[in-house]
Amino acid sequence: MPVTNTSKNIDDRTLTITAEFAAPVERVWQIYADPRQLEKIWGPPGYPATVVEHALTPGGTVTYYMTGPDGEKYGGYWKVTAVDEPRSFSFEDGFADADLKPAGDMPVAHSVYTFEAIGDSATRATYISTYESVEGLQKVLEMGVEEGTAQALNQIDALLAS
């Protein structure tokens, strides 16, 4: 299991997940840079993602939806704010409506994903999401985002092995 730690800080409105992968930083980066690879790990098991738009560049947008076992679609978006390939990227992470436009009534996180080498062939990834309000963080925690994200990240090993 790649996820080594999860922590939430209600006062700072953050959810932090740390994972380690048996692959170089550049390989882990490719999962996020390639929409077809991202589809294989974005979303917990049973909720596969379909990436509709993918521009992992400052000012770019990534839109996607996950399809649940019942066929219902759950949309989301990233508004990319910074990219330091292959070390990190930052983005606004939100829920989207059926047209993949931001859902104004749902929480938005400001996320920073960082990848650092551990030796020659392993990567430590740190995923930090800071929510705009304590209520927003509590809402996504109640929705299961902590468990769902950990399950999604734990799919990366299988992708790296393929």
From TrEMBL:
Domain Activator of Hsp90 ATPase homologue 1/2-like C-terminal: 22-160
CDD domains, per the entry: SRPBCC_CalC_Aha1-like
InterPro entries from the UniProt entry: ASHA1/2-like_C, START-like_dom_sf
A Pfam family reported for this protein in Swiss-Prot or TrEMBL: AHSA1
Recorded family membership: Belongs to the AHA1 family.
Record protein name field: Polyketide cyclase
Organism the protein comes from: Mycolicibacterium flavescens (Mycobacterium flavescens)
